[in-house]
Write a sequence for this structure.
C-alpha cells in the first residue's frame, strides 16, 4: 500500500520520500531482515526520491490496531536516509501513517487500504499528532534534521489541520489550509524555503506556534 506524498499527489523527488505499508498475512513466514535489505536497498534498487520508508504489519494488527502498535519489519533506505532495518518492534506513531494510508492511500495490488486498515481511535490519533508537533517544534533548526525550520512549521500546520478537521493532508495542502484559516503565509513561506533549501527566520516558527496556540503544549 502506498501512503505519504505519493498518495496525496504532492510528491517532489528532491524533498519527498516514498512511504510503503506492507500487510503480511498472519502465520506467513517472513524472509530474514538481511534479505529484505539486500533486495530493497538503495544500492540494489535505486530509490527515485530522497528515501524509502517501509513498514510491514501483520494482517490482524491492521484490523485490531493494538496499542502499543507492533510491526514485523521497518526499513529505511535511500540517497539521503541512513540505511537501517528493524524487526519485531513497536511504533505508536505509526498510527499516523496508517490513518493517512486509510484515508488517501492506494494498494499496488489487492484490496484498498480502507478495507484492510481499521479506523483508529481518535484520542490516540490526536495524541500522536500533538506529540509529533511538539517534537518538530523542539528540534527546529537543528543541523542534520531541520536546519531550515521548514519541517517544523509545516508539521505544525499539518497537525493543526488534522486537529481541526480530522483530515490527513500533505504539507502543501496544510500550508494552503493554514493560510486560509489563520490569514498568515508563514506555512507557504516554509514550502518555499523547503523547495529552495533556504532557512526561515526564527520569527516564522514563533509566529506559527502562536497561531496554532491551543492545539498543543510544548511541555
Amino acid at each position: 500500500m502506498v501512503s505519504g506524498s505519493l498518495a496525496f499527489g504532492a510528491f517532489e523527488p528532491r524533498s519527498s520520500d516514498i512511504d510503503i505499508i506492507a500487510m503480511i498475512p498472519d502465520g506467513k513466514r517472513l524472509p530474514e531482515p538481511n534479505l529484505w535489505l539486500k533486495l530493497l536497498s538503495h544500492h540494489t534498487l535505486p530509490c527515485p526520491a530522497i528515501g524509502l520508508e517501509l513498514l510491514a504489519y501483520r494482517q490482524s494488527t491492521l484490523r485490531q490496531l493494538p496499542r502499543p502498535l507492533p510491526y514485523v519489519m521497518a526499513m529505511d533506505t535511500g540517497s539521503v536516509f541512513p540505511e537501517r532495518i528493524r524487526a519485531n518492534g513497536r511504533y505508536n506513531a505509526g498510527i499516523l501513517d496508517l490513518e493517512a494510508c486509510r484515508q488517501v492511500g492506494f494498494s499496488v495490488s489487492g484490496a484498498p487500504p480502507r478495507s484492510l486498515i481499521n479506523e483508529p481511535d481518535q484520542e490516540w490519533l490526536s495524541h500522536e499528532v500533538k506529540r509529533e508537533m511538539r517534537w518538530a517544534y523542539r528540534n527546529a533548526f537543528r543541523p542534520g534534521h531541520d536546519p531550515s525550520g521548514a519541517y517544523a512549521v509545516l508539521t505544525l500546520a499539518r497537525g493543526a489541520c488534522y486537529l481541526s478537521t480530522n483530515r490527513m493532508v500533505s504539507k502543501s495542502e496544510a500550508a494552503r489550509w493554514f493560510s486560509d484559516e489563520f490569514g498568515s503565509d508563514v506555512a507557504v513561506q516554509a514550502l518555499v524555503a523547503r523547495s529552495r533549501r533556504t532557512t526561515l527566520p526564527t520569527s516564522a516558527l514563533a509566529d506559527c506556534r502562536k497561531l496554532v496556540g491551543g492545539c498543543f503544549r510544548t511541555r
Observations:
- Residues 122-138 form the longest helix (17 residues).
